[in-house]
Amino acid sequence: MKKLRLFVAINLPAEIRGVLVAVQHQLRHLPYTVKWVEERNFHLTLAFLGEVEETRLPTLENALGQALHGFTAFNLSLSQIGAFPHLRQPRVLWVGLSGNTKKANLLSQQIHKALSEQGFTLDNKPFRPHLTLGRVKSRKVEDYRAQKLIAENDLEQIAAQQAALLGHPFSVDKVELMQSELTPQGPIYSVLKTYPC
């Protein structure tokens, strides 16, 4: 039986994707080898389902429609640059979100609840509204102390400088069911269904 790798997301306007690319360029001199997210792939994940049997797609689409019924458009804004687990030892570089994050959180909760009730297994990590810029693969500097000092200073300095670049608001007026196809060149995302808010 064919399986599809699926997630539910808010895709971003072109202007916001452009701002995120500019932030990536500011971070490229850091002492890390980073796998950067491609511009076309920036999104806010609301729920990650992983592998789902294709025959379950109609059930999934109906459950999503019910979960999203009655939601109205809302605004989010780009906020600070950050890293998981933290700036001093980054594994994932990201841009946080501000604005109506409570509504985004509620949206994620509603989706999780509706899909779980239909027997779908989801990634249950706490929802932290962020946009991934890249994943740190390795350090470029062998001396750990030197690397830590450079990275700590650079990331904190860049995070402070980026305040002017960030703060861009955007409207969330749709949620999309996405398919992810993993390839050697990186993931290819495609929209399976759009749910207007």
The parts where pLDDT drops under 50 for at least 5 residues are none
Q: Overall mean pLDDT score? A: 89
- Gyration radius (Cα, Å) is 18 Å
Q: In what order do the strands lie side by side in the largest sheet?
A: 2-6-5-4-7
Structure class: alpha+beta
Measure the end-to-end span.
33 Å
Largest sheet: 5 strands, antiparallel
Please identify which CATH superfamily we are dealing with. Cyclic phosphodiesterase
Order of helices and strands: EHEEHEEHEHEEE
Give the proportion of residues in helices. 25-40%
CATH topology: Cyclic Phosphodiesterase, Chain: A
Overall form? globular
Question: How would you explain this protein's 3D organization?
Answer:
The strands form two sheets. A five-stranded antiparallel sheet has the order 2-6-5-4-7, with helices on both faces. A four-stranded antiparallel sheet has the order 3-1-8-9, covered by helices on one side. By secondary structure, it is of the alpha+beta class. The protein has a single domain (3-196), classed as Cyclic phosphodiesterase (Cyclic Phosphodiesterase, Chain: A, Alpha-Beta Complex). Strand 8 (174-181) and strand 9 (188-196) form a beta hairpin. The chain has helices at 14-27, 57-68, 101-117, 144-161; strands at residues 3-11, 32-36, 43-53, 74-84, 92-99, 130-139, 169-172, 174-181, 188-196. The mean pLDDT is 89. It has four helices and nine strands. 31% of the residues lie in helices and 38% in strands.
